[in-house]
Amino acid sequence: MKYAGRLAAVAFVGALSLAACGTDNNAPAGTGGTTAASAPAAGNDNALSGTINAAGSSAQANAIDEWKKNFQATNSGVSINYQPSGSGAGVQAFIQGTVSFAGSDSALNDEKGEPAQADARCKTGKAINIPMVTGPVAVVYNLPGVDGLQLSPKTIGGIFNSQITKWDDPAIKAENPDAKLPSTPIQAFHRSDESGTSDNFTKFLKATAEWPYDPAKAWPADAKGQGAKGSDGIASSVKDTEGAISYVEMSYAENSQLQKAKVANGSGEFVELTADSAAKTVESAEIKGTGNDLKLSIDYGTKAAGAYPIVLVTYEITCEKGLPAEEAKLVKEFLTYTASDEGQAALKDLGYAPLAGGLLTKVRTAIGAIS
Fold first, then answer.
1. Dihedral pair phi/psi, residue 293, rounded to 5°
2. N or C: which end of the chain has fewer CB within 10 A?
3. Residues 268-316: pLDDT tens digits?
């Protein structure tokens, strides 16, 4: 079947309303490795119908927009409402039972007791973390006349910890000997809302940059800087503020035409951010979950040649078992499409890196187990 086009985000609907009819076409995800969702074509007597409400990561909002347009083009009876409210809010909405799945830039947090709370929401089954989108995190800046800025993790940490405050600081000069760096004050922006992007960015800093704070979705107050809400807010703030620097998903950086710094990986190589350079880091990710729970551990200090080190893998968090049958059917059909070759290929033009290889196979198996 063919899926095409793009749809802007639609408003979130609070109460979940689902209805599915007809025969069950839920073949295991990824059967044969290349199939798209097995939902019947629109207009067929067996067509799916109902509403999926979901919320969470703004990092994956553009991917969801594309996927739901393509999926709804063939399943006109299905409405998919995704609210990009931030990873923390999405996880809480899932735990509270107001959404069918949560988008999150971090897996369920053990220290906060989120896995147990999510399992309780699922009642008869367990909640699972399903990686779906590789969202490379760009270090973006607004410094006219300075292109191709190079920054090491240590220097990035110093900037975001308010220790490096001017663009002509010796640390920045040392990494950019040919650049004409102004004495402009650095204005560092961070996410003001709880964000999986902040969680992953601070994990990178903690692992590589002598960052004194624990990684968290909430930005550490002692690190100071200026806050902006959501990925859109970060992109707008950097674009409108000369001397600004921040971190945001590659898709937002490219959509806003922001300058992106080259970042040094564990071998000291300054690497330009591309889908391919980010994918090299994800390839080395270790699966920490068990069974169909695919929680990953990223090596932010990767020494792989050409590997860009700041990446996040954004998850869909849902119940492996325990959703109402009709709700589970719709979620399974939609996620089967998102993990299909066609669904993953649709990410390339949106600033994301598709999943591949053994990880993608495991994702399809996990989706196939949803019931």
1. -85, 110
2. C
3. 999 999 988 988 888 778 999 999 999 999 999 999 899 999 998 899 9
Structure tokens at 150: 């190079």
What one-character-per-residue DSSP string does 11-25 give? ---SS------S---
Residue pair 220/213 in contact by the 8 Å Cβ criterion: yes
- The string of DSSP codes covering 281-298 is HHTTPEE-S-TT---EE-
* Contact assessment for residue 36 and residue 3, using Cβ atoms and an 8 Å cutoff: yes
| Cβ atoms < 10 Å from Cβ of 19 | 12
Cβ within 8 Å of residue 43, ≥6 positions away: 76
Strand partners, 78: 50
| CA distance linking residue 96 with residue 12, whole number of Å | 16
Residues 6+ apart with CB under 8 A from 362: 287, 292, 294
Nearest to 195 by CA among 162, 232, 153: 232
Question: pTM for this structure?
Answer: 0.71
- Tell me: pLDDT of 81 over 90: yes
